[in-house]
Design goal:
- With about 425 residues, this protein is α/β, with parallel strands linked by helices.
- It has a single domain, classed as Peroxisomal Thiolase, Chain A, domain 1, CATH 3.40.47.
- It has helices at about 25-30, 65-70, 75-90, 115-125, 135-140, 145-155, 170-180, 200-205, 245-250, 280-295, 315-325, 340, 350-365; strands at about 10-15, 35-40, 50-55, 105-110, 160, 185-195, 240-245, 260-270, 305, 335, 365, 390, 395-400, 405-415.
- α11 links the parallel β9 and β10.
- It comes from Sediminispirochaeta smaragdinae (strain DSM 11293 / JCM 15392 / SEBR 4228).
């Protein structure tokens, strides 16, 4: 295929998560089965049915950007810039050692700066329209995530926001792969970022009855994908960002190649505002397309990082989809949900979970699904309850399934000449 002539590899990764403020601390927590879910202390939660969240702790934006720049950014943008700088540093890019016109940004985001909307509305209603902060719009809109990444890092190629709910991060990676394969970019900073743990964000999801409320007094047990006693997802925040690079460009500069971004598949259920199509046909199609794009067969896949939200609706439908896409192979390989430990990072989930896929290949370790104590009878795959296992991983699929029926799947494989 023409688009396979330019191969795409991963040369850098960065993360801000409820488990740690970089990739390695997050990964070590995942390997030990640690949960990042805590009681939400960001605002008064007394009237909210769900009182828990995956909160980023001890984040210092000034480690990654000028203080004056940080003040112009919403939280989701700060997370994205920080993770992007980590990724560029790992890839070995500094100002002047790459062509900025051939360096792009494709960043996924689901919601934008909710905290900016809320604070500005309070000022509008209490003090009038003339007192609304002048940076309200530039801080809250979703495109300011990648725009600020580009400004801070000096990246002058295509710069785009991808907003497809919980599939945003994975769809952004797909856009980055397409840009590199087409020859428009040599380097792409991509993934997702989210910061929507606010009063409006939590209230909105609570009204939809999608958040866990059963485990408010025991937060680390609340996210329990595929478990019979799950009752909803746990909202989380942070960013997962990768540097993707055209293979020959990476080799020419002696970059350390972490893995190959082999394939991407996407589809839409065209079914419902919030619920996936019951038989999982759309998700299965996206998985098949990702494998086809990456010249992979079901027998090549050694691990699936499931969307695995811990909602009553998602988990059995995704299980059906995996069976449709992988056939008999589905029962032989680990299918786990790292959201059991991180919570659901919404638009950032696909970026972080693609990073996790790269790490499973690098370290030969698959993280497990914690809190899986009694499997739902409709969820009957190998979900690795507990801390995970050491094993050789050649290729992975990472699933992201969003409100509106957006399905996006990223295929990562071990890099070989």
């Amino acid at each position: 295929m023409e688009n396979q002539k330019r191969r795409v590899v991963v040369t850098g990764m960065g993360a801000i998560t409820p488990l740690g403020n970089d990739v390695e601390s997050t990964w070590q927590a995942l390997k030990t089965g640690k949960s990042g879910i805590v009681r939400n202390d960001r605002f008064d939660i007394s009237e909210f049915p769900s009182k828990i969240a995956g909160l980023v702790r001890d984040f210092e934006p000034n480690n990654y950007m000028e203080k004056k720049d940080a003040r112009k950014m919403a939280l989701f943008t700060q997370y994205g810039v920080a993770a992007a700088r980590q990724a560029m540093d790992q890839a070995g890019f500094t100002s002047g050692n790459f062509d900025p016109d051939r360096a792009s940004v494709f960043l996924g985001n689901g919601i934008g700066g909710f905290e900016i909307i809320e604070s500005s509305y309070r000022i509008l209603f209490s003090k009038g329209p003339s007192r609304v902060p002048p940076l309200t719009i530039p801080k809250l809109i979703s495109n300011e995530g990648p725009a600020n990444v580009a400004m801070v890092l000096g990246l002058k190629g295509p710069c785009q926001t991808i907003t497809t709910a919980c599939a945003s991060g994975s769809d952004a990676i797909g856009a980055a792969v397409a840009s590199i394969r087409s020859g428009r970019s040599d380097i792409a900073v991509t993934g997702g970022t989210e910061g929507c743990i606010t009063e409006l964000g939590i209230a909105g999801f609570c009204i939809l009855q999608t958040l866990s409320t059963k485990y408010n007094d025991d937060p680390t047990r609340a996210s329990r994908p595929f478990d019979k006693n799950r009752d909803g997802f746990v909202i989380a925040e942070g960013a997962g960002v990768l540097v993707l690079e055209e293979l020959e460009h990476a080799k020419a500069r002696g970059a350390k190649i972490l893995a190959e971004l082999a394939g991407y598949g996407a589809s839409c259920d065209a079914y419902h505002l919030t619920s996936p199509e019951p038989e999982g046909e759309g998700a299965a199609k996206a998985m098949r397309l990702a494998m086809e794009d990456g010249n992979l067969r079901p027998e090549d896949i050694d691990y699936v990082n499931a969307h695995g939200t811990s909602t009553p609706t998602n988990d059995p439908i995704e299980t059906r989809a995996i069976k449709k896409a992988l056939g008999e192979r589905a029962r032989d390989i680990p299918v786990t949900s790292t959201k059991s430990m991180t919570g659901h990072l919404v638009g950032a989930a696909g970026g972080l979970e693609t990073i996790i896929s790269v790490l499973t290949i690098r370290d030969g370790f698959v993280p497990g699904t914690i809190n899986l104590e009694e499997a739902d009878p409709e969820c009957d795959l190998n979900y690795l309850p507990g801390k995970g296992k050491e094993m050789k991983v050649r290729a992975t699929l990472s699933n992201s399934l969003g409100f509106g029926g957006h399905n996006a799947v990223v295929a990562v494989k071990e890099w070989k000449e």
